[in-house]
Amino acid sequence: MSGWDTVNLPLKSQPGSSRLKTVSxxxxxxxxxxxxxxxxxxxxxxxxxxxAHRYKGNSISTTKYNIFTFLPxxxxxxxxxxxxxxxxxxxxxxxxxxxxxxxxTNMVPLSLVLLFSLIxxxxxxxxxxxxxxxxxxxxxxxxQAQGWETLQWKKLQVGDIIRVKxxxxxxxxxxxxxxxxxxxxxxxxxxNLDGETxxxxxKGLEKTWDYSSPEKACEFKGEVQCEQPNNSLYTFxxxxxxxxxxxxxxxxxxxxxxxxxxxxxxxxxxVIFTGHETKVMMNSxxxxxxRSTLERRLDxxxxxxxxxxxxxxLLGAMGSGMFIDRKYFYLGLRENVEDQFNPSRRFLVIILTxxxxxxxxxxxxxxxxxxxxxxxxxxxxSQFINKxxxxxxxxxxxxxxxxxxxxxxxxxxxxYIFSDKTGTLTRxxxxxxxxxxxxxxxxxxxxxIESGIxxxxxxxxxxxxxxxxxxxxxxxxxxxxxxxxxAWRNEPNHDACKEFFRCLAICHTVLPEGDExxxxxxxxxxxxDEAALVLAAKNFGFFFYRRTPTMIYVRESHxxxxxxxxxxxxxxxxxxEFNSTRKRQSVVCRYPDGxxxxxxxxxxxxxxxxxxxxxxxxxxxxxxxxxKFGSAGLRTLCLAYRDLAPDLYESWNEKFIKAxxxxxxxxxxxxxxxxLIEKELILIGATAIEDKLQEGVPSCIQTxxxxxxxxxxxxxxxxxxxxxxxxxxxxxNNEMKQFIISSETDAIREVEERGDQAxxxxxxxxxxxxxLKKCLDExxxxxxxxxxxxxxxxIDGKCLMHALDPSLRIMxxxxxxxxxxxxxxxxxPLQKAQVTSLVKKGARKITLSIGDGANDVSxxxxxxxxxxxxxxxxxxxxxxxxxxxxQFRFLEDLLLVHGRWAYIRLCKVVMYFFYKNLAxxxxxxxFTFSTGFSGQRFYDDWFQSLYNVxxxxxxxxxxxxxxxxxxxxxxxxxxELYKEGVKNMFFKWRVVVLWAxxxxxxxxxFFYFISAxxxxxxxxxxxxxxxxDVSTMAFTCVVVTVNLRLLxxxxxxxxxxxxxxxxxxxxxxxxxFLYCGVMTPLDRNDNMYWVIxxxxxxxxxxxxxxxVPVAALLVDFxxxxxxxxxxxxxxxxxxxxxxxEIHGTGLSGLLESKHEHTAEVARSSEISRLPREVSxxxxxxxxxxxxxxxxxxxFGKYVPPKAWDVARRASMKSKAKPK
Amino acid sequence: MTDPNRERYRIRETAFYLFTQQxxxxxxxxxxxxxxxxxxxxxxxxxxxxxxxxxRASHSVVEIVDRYDIECVPESSRIDKISYIQDDSxxxxxxxxxxxxxxxxxxxxxxxQLDNYYQNHRRYVKSRSDKQLLHGRKYHDTSxxxxxxxxxxxxxxxxxxxxxxxxxxxxxxIRERAELKVNRKNIAWxxxxxHKFGKNVHPxxxxxxxxxxxxxxxxxxxxxxxxxxxxxxxxxxxxxxxKLYGRIEEDLDVDDVxxxxxxxxxxxxxxxxxxxxxxxTSSWLGGKNNFLGHACIxxxxxSLVLAIVFTLLHxxxxxxxxxxxxxxxxxxSLSG
Lengths: 1219, 336
Fold this sequence. Notes:
The structure holds two protein chains of two kinds. By secondary structure, chain A is α+β, with helices and mostly antiparallel strands.
């Protein structure tokens, strides 16, 4: 690595800077004058020249601290916490003479807590450092002295020429020079950047194509002038100056760090931006850390404790002001007494005693609470959530991952889920599932929703499922012997079948790609629906294999010639394109024999309007079928055709061509012309496509809604699709009262056509207001009656935009909060976030957003909890999320099991901390009353300082980790239990007051039982106890009681509970034995010397030790018994129901839950089997946000990118790759 | 050779698996009425006997309490007790009569009891020097002893308010004209005598200042033998306390009258404190204190009563355990 590692001589900067001048002149010649005030000049392949600019190296560091900043910065971070700062203040205060306690009392817990936190920080930072190190040490080929040398990433410098091999990651932002592919093209995957898995093309400048070999690359001496590093991923401006030629550079030549090279053997490029200056690093923002609601409530509790503390101090201080008097001669209160005890300056006495008491009662603030909670949460997320096998997706090898440990308990209180559709609820995989031809239904499969219903009725689904060895292809999940393998020829309506299949094969805009054989061909379609239909035609024996601008070639197997295939070419005369108003698509084609046919497919509503008269029976039957498909969650399309007479066609075609060439309102005119011919259609049948749901989605949604969670679907898709999926997911059904607020009304369209933006806005707003009001009026009659139907709301993006206006927001909120499910369609990513925060802020409910794509990021960040779907698509959503799971259905485990437990556990931990500190501190408080309010400490310094961090620290952590009220399978079987968390049953002020009551009672028992029993009696023979004997006895009782109380609140007691509780008590005794027994000359501890031995030498001690904890816990126990008896929590009932079961595996519980169903479920499933009367819904396919722009781009039209275009999914981006 | 290792590894793996899957073996106590009743019953059965035994021990103790602080001030001085007690010229001796109502078995502990005396006041508690008590004048830092620290620039041994305010009433007991021997040895805890008070430390400059607090000490006797001081310096926990004065090592019979000649030196009048003399035998549990016994019996009885109440409730209004109709979602569906 000669000469490269150390760049020597600053002398050489001379030519560099002179070159800079010349460069700045040439830059103005270029196409682009950079917008930046400054620009950078990079000399490729010349480290010495670049040295002058002191560009940053390529090593990155994401660590928070380094060795020197660790202590100051880490401590600063720690003291931003109020509790820690408070303890620091108290510690300082306790070093003053006003303190009754040794500074050690408050220093020890504080420093232990700080130490623990700092170790944790250091550990996390160390891991980050290791990670950085691994990245920085990745190897890359760098051009050096005529050859490629392997260097570490961190040694890379701006201007280096590097080579990246296939599947390798780019170490920095690189200017693409040459590639092994033809035309200097390379393919990259940007999944790490924007989550898209489809490959993107980058193309080097023609001038640089040859520099792929090391020999050649050595000769490359170019200068790059480009913008300063910035965080815009999709822009780049700069020039390459080579051989005195200035060539403009565009983003097309830039390979960004974080992307990887695909389908290309290797590329050669020049490094432009390195390390932290790369675009991806400039983009890495600090995701604002979320705090859980419980923690925010905890702050209030701490505040309340502070208030209690101050009132206690004030009370004590007032007392001391009144008490202090010269009459107590033994206190030596003479003239020159210090201020704190000076009877002639009582006000000062009060103030100073306040300080004294503040240090004395400091234990009321649970200092180790935050550390304990953090530890618990960290283990919960890293060990339980991340390693739960129930949330492990074996197919993609993806476990769940908690990316933050802050929000575990928030998972137990979610009330609203906002879900993305594509990729989250559905797999974005369309499969041809069923069809209806000539009044006959074909296709034997069952959708999940159907099998769900069947399962609830008790039919064994396994038996009904047909064998799976039938023709199955991705996109074609159809099985019916009557149609497949040419069997349709024997069907009575085989003519209709033929027409049906032809329509599928001809009426579309799909492009075939690849080999022209049925096995190898690939269809490029704008929407996956279309591809599925063409694929279905192929499987039925109508194989569409080639398309030219005027012809479609289909390989048909005919009725007439059994087993033979025949290539038929149809002339495509006109294509009447799909758009959202027409909701249909037609093709006029001419058969080889001259027959002129118009094939049309579209939504049932628009097709039925245009059917010719006659054949009512078929139309009626097909409509029934459509409804059936629709309620099974399938996306339906109607197929129809019309034979055209040549003269009719000719006259129409003239109008069509005229419309097509018109300059104004072309679209509108085309639509009008299309109307003229799309009429008197003859219905052939209907297709049903399954928008394949993710596994287990309907049942998961049902479970979640039983848990009281309301699920909103927010999707960019159109209304019909969204409704369809909502049906498929059980979110909507025909028993529900549905409200639809849509902007697709004629009135709105009319106004829109006039084109005045202000008027449109105003009109839509008024309309939305009207609609909202109407819905609200209608809905409000159902609000009160519990037996009324459930409500559902469907609203589209345009209406939503106006409904989110502050004036309408309240109405929208009232309506939507009363709906069991809400579907928002056609919403932009921003609106997704707005809806989320509407509920989060407006209704103050705990929200969860789940999504998989980059368009869900804003929503994920806006909600209390963001969940990313990991495993398949890119990482963008996952990177922004708080938790990542592989499948939607894992929400069930995440919320009902982990969330619920975390919530219950955390509540217990917090309450227990509150209780134990209060009980402990109050004994001290009662003691103050009998010390003349002097602030004398009751306990030894070490007792007080170790109480929180040693004697009572570990067991509560065990509860936070292991407490388990019911088994996971039961949590899922009784999802209603989750409501306890939503209602926040375990962290209400009522609960706090209850615990406070127990704490007060127990502290009274501790203090007065001990003091009353020692007042006239002592040890043998006749000797009396002193202050420290009494306090040691009291402290022993406190430690024992508080630890036993913990056991009483456990729902399950593992070995670790016993070990930790027993251990804590044991540690106390070991400590006190040592502490009382050892008296070093260095630090004499006269007060405590031999105390415990004196105590243990008297039987009195044992009687007390038996009596006090029992007396203290008796009331708690009584409460527990009464509570369970008369006011049982739901989970307690469930516990009792399954008391005798063994939940070792959880398997038995799972099996059982499948067969048991409550009366309500049985009833509703009975109802769902009943025939439906009125048509409320039938599905409709054909859609994707990118649909219209797809054809536009095919014809070379530029379509302005929409907000979500950047984040559009891979599947929808279908620009054909140049070959 | 590796087998036990592998076995251990496997066990550890299993344990870790159970841990992460949160299925550690656990016992799940469900607080059924049966358990509630049993536990209450059990508590009752334990605490009532313990309480009875404790109470019996307490009752077996014979105790004579005599408050003497008022009676020992002559009638004439009762209006202004403070000046009486502060006037050194007036003799402070006083006689009290105590009648033994019950046979008292030796050793009989003699206590003095002070009420409303805040030995646990912060200023008081910290005003001592443990190191000086052990090392005497060799230990110089007596700053903790304020305000009774130095006298004429010389450190006072023992310094501090506690020692300075040493109780100095003295008692002699006469039965039928014969003086009862009072043993004043071994009244302090052994650990205090041996380890906290120096054997070679002698009082110095004690009670020589301008203000005299309480009792004086013999300069010749080392601190470790000044048991009055040692007892006094084990500060009490509450403002009302007893301290051991000595022991009478003879039995006292019923109807014995004991004459107590006491020197009423100690000033409790200025702050309204009380002084009492207590003669008490002791049981295995210590002195007379009914509190423990009563508390035990109350706890035991209430447990027993609760057990009975719960049993009756259980028999009368039996709540079917695990009754699904208690679940709110079922309740709703039943009504709806």
